[in-house]
Write a structure and sequence with these properties.
Layout: H1 5-12, H2 28-57, H3 59-62, E1 88-91, E2 96-101, E3 104-109, E4 115-117, E5 131-136, E6 142-146, E7 149-154, E8 159-162
Antiparallel strand pairs: 1-2, 2-3, 3-4, 5-6, 6-7, 7-8
Length: 166
Amino acid sequence: MKKSPVINLLSSLGHMSDRNNLPANYSLGKWKKYHKWPSLVLAFSLLLFAVSGIVLNHREFFSGVDVNRKYLPKVYHYSNWNLAAIKGATEIGRDSILVYGNVGVWLTKSDFSEFRNFNQGFPRGKDNRKTYSIFKTTGGEILAGTLSGLYRYDSNNQTWLDCPST
């Protein structure tokens, strides 16, 4: 059996015993024990980093997946419009206001007594409904700037239409 160059070097330096070409104080069982558990922990950690990196780098692919907030820790639950649930409001009529934020767009009366879902036309998924700004033009057109792009409200069909970028 041919010896490896490392074993030949160690033997020539007197660090090897004749028994199985292993160092005199070498215990294979001891190394297996100390190698096994840290390796399992490290492998799990690296796998976790790899999967989370794929999810974060391919946001558009995973944006349609919704996780209900009741399954998340309490700090992620909406309570009294926290966590940027509402970022702003735009008056679109005498008695109509559009409120928007991380929960999408909602139509309400000026006294905020009732809310109606105003997200028809946005892509599926909470991430795609994150609205940063709503603007009403002088011509009466309503535009919404969201995480997934710019949208124009079509009042005839009562839906948001994607404004293609040029």
